[in-house]
Amino acid sequence: MSLHAQDDPELRAAQEARLREVWKPPSGLFLRWTDTNNDRVGVWYTLTAFGFMLFAGVLAMIMRTQLAVPDNDLVSANTFNQLFTLHGSMMMFLFAVPMFEAVSIILLPQLLGARDLPFPRLSAFGYWSFLLGGVFVAGSIFFNEAPDGGWFMYPPLTTRTDLSGLGADIWMLGLSFIEVSSVAAAVELIVGVLKCRPPGMRLNLMPLYAWYILVVAVMILFAFPPLIAGDLLFEMERLLNWPFFDASRGGDPLLWQHLFWIFGHPEVYIIFLPSIALFAMLVPTFAKRHLLGYPWIVLAAVGTAFLSFGLWVHHMFTTGLPKISLAFFSAASEAVVIPTGVQIFVFIATLWAGRVTWSTPLLYATGSLAIFVIGGLTGVMVAVAPFDWQAHDTYFVVAHLHYVLIGGTLMPLFAGLYYYWPLITGKKLSDRLGRIAFWMLFAGANITFFPMHFSGLEGMPRRVFTYPAELGIGGLNLVSTLGAYLFAAGVAVVCLDLALSPRRKTGARNPWGAGTLEWLEDPADDAHWGVRCVPLISSRYPIWDQKDFVKKVDEGRFFLPDAEEGRRETIITSVLDARPVSVIRLGTPSFKPMLTAIALGGVFILTTFHLYWAALACAFATLFMVLLWLWTGTAEIPEKECKPIGHGIKLPLYVSGAKAPGWWAMFITMMADATAFSGLVFGYFFFWTRHPDFPPADMAAAPGAFWPMVALAVALVSWTLTVAARQLNAAGSVGAARMALAAGAAFSAYGVYAGLAGPWLSGMDPEAHVYPAIVWTLAIWTAAHSGVAIIMQGYTLARSIAGRMTPKYDADVRNITVYMHFFALTAIVTYATIGLFPGVS
Amino acid sequence: MKRGLPGWALRLRVTLWTLIVPPTTWAAHFLFAYLWAAINCAKVGQFATFPWLFVGGTVAALLVILASGWIAWHQSRVPGDAPPHEESTDVDRLRFLAKSTLLLSGLSFVAVIFTALPVVFIGDCR
Amino acid sequence: MRRIGASLAASALLSACNRHQSALATFGAEATNIRTITIALVVGAAVIAAIMIGVYWRAVRAPEGQLTHKQGMRLVLWLGGIGPAIVLTVILIFALPAMRPRVTGAGDLTIHVEGEQFWWRVGYERPGGGVLVSANEVRVPVGRTVAFELTGRDVIHSFWIPGLAGKMDMIPGRTNSLVVRADKAGRYRGVCTEFCGLSHALMAFDVVAMEPAAFDAWLAGQARPAAGAGQGEGERLFAANGCGGCHAIRGTEHNSRIGPDLSRYGERLTLGAGILPPTVERTAQFIRAPQEAKPGVRMPAYPQLSNQEARAIAVYLKGLK
């Protein structure tokens, strides 16, 4: 196929017909929900997250009504505690984070000129997990069983089963389930940004939104796993009575606070940076020029990501830690202001240098910057530890965080909503309603939250269901409540605007005259293929800068303009320079993601109600579904080796190892796994610093050095055998490779026993003290990974025997080798810690 | 190629990994500082009047950041067209990554200094 | 404009009321220092906000091309990078030394406070040795260094007297120290600031800062049993209904430490940990149905007591001074 071949309109029509057929969404009452295409799944995801936001907003309105006057009794203390816990938890876990993932699932393929993200079924799985977990958590309030320990769930209030009920389990397990789906989305987005860019889009040409998403997704990998580790310890205390947070048995409630805030502070930036990313897309459009200072934005995003992991203790300034420890975090909390300031001034400089066109999105962006700056300035104040000792856990902090989150997340999302609505629906929203809503939101936010600075400093603590009249803060609270109603009315106007949208006429393509790839989308065309063809990029704003760009794309004059084999495909490129590497076949609509999510949801939800056997059955169902999904949908041997993508370029249809998205997905997942594990190891050494002697001198039972060393040796043998299997398979010795895999699985099985033998044979009682509890936890974690290794080795062996893995097509064995590297590392750390460290210390 | 430009600095392969060397150094130093103080305070009850271990660690971190910034500075001056480096060429991609690394070195340098200040001003375990 | 209006309205609203639980109306050295820091930070923040608004205003009104690429980069470098770095360094140089706690000496008063759902157990270390136990009220001498030793019995609480100093958490298994000095005598209020369960909002306490001589006399006097202790119909009902199973009254057989000490209930300024006026009427109501005043409270209800019996106990308790 040459460049001129595309001159033929009939050929183009035939190509389009084929593409249309391939990307046709499933229809029908049930089948439509099997869709995996990013434009559908992303919209479901967005609408669901928006719905949860409205729900959590209603909860806030009830709270504000309760607090409007002193000594009010509209709701009981019990209800109020559920309200604020659910409001915070939902806004964070069911709105802010999923919303960013949802918007990215819609936008990212468009921005990258890709047909879809690399793992569409994973997106669908993430969505169904989110929906199920979200309904489970949010619905609990209708049964008066919602979590009531605050969104931070500090033990011992929440771990003592005499002080807290089912709500705590619902929070822990329901949200753990959603955290799993967040990590899944992070994997998807990282691989998407690194491997699915169009040819020519080197790192220096990537849309800034993609840079931010990359950074944020990496942050999720390091921020969520410590919380998942914390959740694990938490549920082991609640369900099994292992005393991690019980001071009377050597535990310490502060361990939870560390693990929670190692997640909790980066979380703030995880939800702030994607919103700033929306600014980075719309500011150049309305300044009619390139964003000025592209590397500065990268500096800011990467710098913020790193620094945000050095701030967590500033949520713990009043816990009595040594002042020197607090001071490190105070200093880092100040340092993070610098990259934030840089971002804001990059936008200001761009607007200054360009020609500003006022529009509703830019109005929202301006308003949110104003609100965010106030939140940022009070953030500098609370980072000063002595001031925080007064402000902490008062309404001052409520004011601060709402300024940050409204200015840094909610209002930018509204800016993005007004900006991108035409992209998704083809219709602009009303400028008039948009502006009315803006002023209601802007005034409402300030009237609600500005007085809270004063009520806080006048002595109003957070999370109080009422306050006495004699404190004299009734007037301030009444103003806050009225402001909240105004804000809610503003949100209602936005909803009205959205509701009126279907009645409006379809507008023009690229209505804002933007320069980035996502605006290739033509609202007049109902195609679901993402892009007509994958373009060659030579500018940050190709629609502005590349000659006849839109026309060339529309006529399929770039890459992959056809779907000859009737398969959904997209191009994989190299990380740094986006050189074409291969064409991958994408997952098609399927029930498997949904069923897997339901099975996994069953594990979490049934455990909440202590239905352990049913939960175990669901766990097996999940395993079965995952294996079925992988077996039928991944590492498929193509019918031919290579495929032309146009312009004389032929790309392989199968790659393995570091070139393949699957390998990256495994690597990234294991990074998250290793981070969760390091959370547990942190727990061990945290307890070591908390006790003068750890292991406690009077504790007779200890795993000793023998069994841990045996387990370590077994784990390393299993690892060696897997690496050998990879090499043997690549060298063509299929039989030997199968032997190595079988032997590896046998060693992994023995590794499960040897790993647990240390604590088991020495009779360590995990309910007695935190030392046996944490040793057991590390041993179980590693043994469980050994168990997963058996499954992986067995699976790969089966693939080889079934002819689905050959010396040439060897993605499976390469992927499990990545797992085994991390497993070996886990085994070394675990067994050295429990077997050797007691002797060293 | 500019005078005084060391060849090895240019030949160094610039990747996303080299981009994060300066902030990773900050993170390592921060973790070191936190653990150093926490373990000293929990296990010893105090730390030395002249905390040589901490000073050494801080100097080492600053040197790594300076070196990485210096290399990036040279790399960002590879001849090519004027800023804003937005062509799809090897040079522009190199200069972009180098410029970003340089900026991150600056931020990381300031952040390491910030992390060192508490030891100067607080100086005990209370 | 609106913000200025809001702050004016706020000060107007506040001037009318009693500000005995305010971080801005201080009576202690620590809180006063922090208030000074607060004012400096607020002024600085206002200046920075004004600069930002000014720059933004200029930016959006400037004609195209007024700012070249090079000038733009300079703007980002100086206003976005170097400027904030300098301001933040200055803040740290002033803020870090301010974190150092007050130095304590051997003769300083130590007060142990333990938080429990939803009240405060208070213990004064007496000069001659021994600990004087009280509840839900903290008295401190003006002008002397006082060290609070804080812990939580059941869950995490937080000890906050806004007018005196910043807050400090009370964590089971840990003892945190908060060193303060009161500077102005008077009656103030403290409150729990870590969410601790159902009645977190109803967990406060009274703070009385006293002249040193008055404090010493008060502390010495407290060791003696109250005048009416162990006498009358109220005492009989108190004992018969098992109140002594949880509450202690010095000079009687009741010495349980489960609930709040009632030895000098008659001197208390409030009932139910800082939430109700300690009248006979309210006290009697509280005895019969504590859950109504304070959801989740550990004290069982005594609906079997008649109104008169409950009043008799209340009268007895009110007499303990």
TrEMBL record, chain A:
Domain called Cytochrome oxidase subunit I profile: residue spans: 17-538
Claim: Transmembrane helix is one of the keywords in the record: yes
Give the matching Gene3D superfamilies: Cytochrome c oxidase, subunit III, four-helix bundle (1.20.120.80), Cytochrome c oxidase-like, subunit I domain (1.20.210.10)
Q: Which GO cellular component terms are attached?
A: plasma membrane
Compartments reported by the entry = Cell membrane
EC assignment: the record states 7.1.1.9
Q: Report keywords, A-Z.
A: Cell membrane, Copper, Electron transport, Heme, Iron, Membrane, Metal-binding, Respiratory chain, Translocase, Transmembrane, Transmembrane helix, Transport
Output the GO biological process annotations, alphabetical, semicolon-separated. Answer: electron transport coupled proton transport; oxidative phosphorylation; respiratory electron transport chain
User: What superkingdom heads the lineage?
Assistant: Bacteria
For this UniProt entry, which segments traverse the membrane?
Answer: 42-63, 83-112, 124-143, 170-194, 206-228, 268-287, 294-314, 326-350, 362-387, 399-421, 433-454, 474-500, 589-606, 612-631, 663-686, 706-725, 737-761, 773-795, 816-837
User: Which GO molecular function annotation, any one, does this entry have?
Assistant: heme binding
Write down the Pfam families for this protein, in alphabetical order.
COX1
Signal peptide positions are none
Which principal EC class is assigned to this enzyme? Answer: translocase
This enzyme catalyses:
4 Fe(II)-[cytochrome c] + O2 + 8 H(+)(in) = 4 Fe(III)-[cytochrome c] + 2 H2O + 4 H(+)(out)
Q: In which pathway does it act?
A: Energy metabolism; oxidative phosphorylation
Q: Does the keyword Transmembrane apply?
A: yes
What membrane topology does this protein have?
Multi-pass membrane protein
Family assignment from sequence similarity: Belongs to the heme-copper respiratory oxidase family.
Q: What is this protein called?
A: cytochrome-c oxidase
Q: Which source organism does the UniProt entry give?
A: Sphingomonas yantingensis
Automatic annotation (TrEMBL), chain B:
Instruction: Give the transmembrane region(s).
Output: 12-37, 49-73, 102-123
Q: Give the highest taxon in the source lineage.
A: Bacteria
Q: Which UniProt keywords apply?
A: Membrane, Transmembrane, Transmembrane helix
Q: What is this protein called?
A: Transmembrane protein
Supply the source organism for this entry. Sphingomonas yantingensis
Automatic annotation (TrEMBL), chain C:
GO biological process terms, semicolon-separated = ATP synthesis coupled electron transport
- Which Pfam families does UniProt cross-reference here? COX2, Cytochrom_C
Known catalytic reactions: 4 Fe(II)-[cytochrome c] + O2 + 8 H(+)(in) = 4 Fe(III)-[cytochrome c] + 2 H2O + 4 H(+)(out)
Q: Residues in domain Cytochrome c?
A: 229-321
Q: Where are the transmembrane segments?
A: 35-55, 75-96
What keywords does the record list, in alphabetical order?
Answer: Copper, Electron transport, Heme, Iron, Membrane, Metal-binding, Respiratory chain, Signal, Transmembrane, Transmembrane helix, Transport
Gene Ontology terms, cellular component aspect? Answer: membrane
Q: Which residues form the signal peptide?
A: 1-25
The molecular function terms in GO held by this entry are:
copper ion binding; cytochrome-c oxidase activity; heme binding; oxidoreductase activity
Q: Which CDD domains match?
A: CuRO_CcO_Caa3_II
What SUPFAM superfamilies does this protein's entry cite? Cupredoxins (SSF49503), Cytochrome c (SSF46626)
> What membrane topology does the UniProt entry give?
Multi-pass membrane protein
Record keywords: Membrane included? yes
> Could you say which protein family the record assigns here?
Belongs to the cytochrome c oxidase subunit 2 family.
Q: Which PANTHER family match?
A: CYTOCHROME C OXIDASE SUBUNIT 2 (PTHR22888:SF9), CYTOCHROME C OXIDASE, SUBUNIT II (PTHR22888)
Task: Relate the protein's function as given in its record.
Answer: Subunits I and II form the functional core of the enzyme complex. Electrons originating in cytochrome c are transferred via heme a and Cu(A) to the binuclear center formed by heme a3 and Cu(B).
NCBIfam families in the record, alphabetically? Answer: CoxB
Name of the protein this chain belongs to: Cytochrome aa3 subunit 2
The organism encoding this protein is Sphingomonas yantingensis
